[in-house]
Amino acid sequence: MPEQEVILHVEDLKMHFPIKRGVIQRTVGYVHAVDGVTFDVYKGETLGLVGESGCGKTTAGRTILQLYKPTAGKVVFEGKDLVQLKSEEMRQTRRKIQMIFQDPYASLNPRMTVEEIIGEPLLVHNIEHGKEIRDHVKDLLELVGLNPAYVDRYPHEFSGGQRQRIGVARSLALKPDLIVCDEPISALDVSIQAQVVNLLEDLQKELGLTYLFIAHDLSMVRHISNRVVVMYLGILVEMADRKTLYENPLHPYSIALLSAVPIPDPKIEEKRKRIILEGDVPSPINPPSGCRFRTRCPLAQSICAEQRPEWKEVEPGHYVACHFWNNTKSLQRR
């Protein structure tokens, strides 16, 4: 298998938000939203980043884009460490790395027309002006499956699915290489979700895009992703290609997540083992010692509290952070 080109390398990325109290706003603690994640994204692929709500997925995506300045770590995009870039260099680099936001109702300015929303990046980066922008916006609307005649309409005149298409068109305006998709379908009706995902796949083939696809819908991630990373309470617990992760998960948390995904065959669904995790997700302000997942893990032992499991490659391309990854077969649904 030929060596794949790494477009994004994230190394030991941390994002800790300070908690301030009192009149003088003294720092009394930190929210460990992202706490040392490492992964690569290959050119032309879709890497799915999954986990339950509050695990740090969106924060990781925004920190990669430098919308939050990371506490520590490296974010190397096309050979440049974004953490070290000055503001003007970062502004230029943002042309190559864009984001599709989760909520199509909140991410579009209600006072701006579609032409102004999609054309704003072209204006900000001084690429096109006047009629050039209008023509380019019409082309982009056509590309995402909307009528080019909609350029003078406002966001309130569109449905949720159409608004998200406008958001996709805006992210494409500067011809980026990498797009961070932050749960782009979670706010949409199920019938519309498939249309938006199919659009993203078609655009990827046509334009050679690379996606970091953040989601908690495991069946949709399976459909769109080449590889999948599982996140829990600010850390990564497992990473593998799509087929391996869904057929042979090795981390107890991944197994529990996948056991909750319904299977359309009623005979298999009736026999399979469902894992119900006990307790709540611990607070990211004071995460558990050792393994983050140990407070809810059915396999946890004393070593799990004492020692943080190493993030290691246990099979080619299959990474896991668990002391007992080779004893998880008993948990798997069969």
Which keywords apply here?
334 residues; alpha/beta; Rossmann fold; eight-stranded mixed sheet; four-stranded antiparallel sheet; 12 strands; 24% strand
What does it look like?
- By secondary structure, the protein is α/β, with parallel strands linked by helices.
- It has a domain of 203 residues: 3-Layer(aba) Sandwich (Rossmann fold).
- The chain is 31% helix and 24% strand.
- The chain contains eleven helices and twelve strands.
- Strands 6-7-8-3-9-10-12-11 form an eight-stranded mixed beta sheet, with helices on both faces.
- A hairpin with a 2-residue loop joins strand 11 and strand 12.
- The longest helix has 18 residues.
- The radius of gyration is 21 Å and the shape is globular.
- It starts with 5 loop residues before the first strand and ends in a 14-residue tail after the last strand.
Helix-strand blueprint:
Blueprint lengths: L5 E16 L4 E17 L3 E5 L6 H8 L7 E6 L2 E2 L5 H7 L3 E4 L13 H11 L5 H14 L16 H13 L5 E5 L7 H18 L2 E6 L2 H7 L2 E6 L2 E7 H6 L4 H8 L6 H6 L30 H5 L5 E4 L2 E3 L14
Parallel strand pairs: 3-8, 3-9, 6-7, 7-8
Antiparallel strand pairs: 1-2, 1-4, 4-5, 9-10, 10-12, 11-12
Helix pairs in contact: 3-4, 3-5, 4-5, 5-6
Kindly summarize this structure in a few lines:
The chain has 334 residues and is an alpha/beta fold. Helices cover 31% and strands 24% of the residues.
